[in-house]
Design goal:
- This protein has about 110 residues and is mainly alpha-helical.
- The protein has a domain at about 80-110.
- The chain has five helices and no strands.
- It has helices at about 15-40, 45-65, 65-70, 75-100, 105-110.
- The protein is elongated, with a radius of gyration of 18 Å.
Length: about 110
């Protein structure tokens, strides 16, 4: 008998759960940055959220182009976890700082997002 194993099809990144989570994270960060820009918040708020948008776009592009499969010498899940932890710390600091002083409604909205 011939043992034929079916080929495993890989789901495109944009349709995976990981892709949806990254897209949602990107949308929330862009919304936060937009609120900070419109409210003319202090520059560190805009810079940190802009940096996070850039990093998220880098990871999305990396996974869409499947470069994670080419560069097997990096452990990508660990990089994702470290990125998420650093992002969480930075965004918590920014959101708390945005809510402390008397600010405009848009700055508070950016801090909440």
């Amino acid at each position: 008998m011939d043992n034929v194993q079916p080929k495993i099809k890989h789901r495109p990144f944009c349709f995976s759960v990981k892709g949806h989570v990254k897209m949602l994270r990107l949308a929330l960060t862009v919304t936060s940055m937009t609120f900070f820009i419109i409210a003319q918040a202090p520059e560190p708020y805009i810079v940190i959220t802009g940096f996070e948008v850039t990093v998220i776009l880098f990871f999305i592009l990396l996974y869409i182009l499947r470069l994670d499969r080419l560069m097997k010498w990096l452990f990508w899940p660990l990089l994702d976890i470290i990125n998420s932890l650093v992002t969480t710390v930075f965004m918590l600091i920014v959101s708390v700082l945005a809510l402390i002083p008397e600010t405009t409604t848009l700055t508070v909205g950016g801090g909440l997002f």
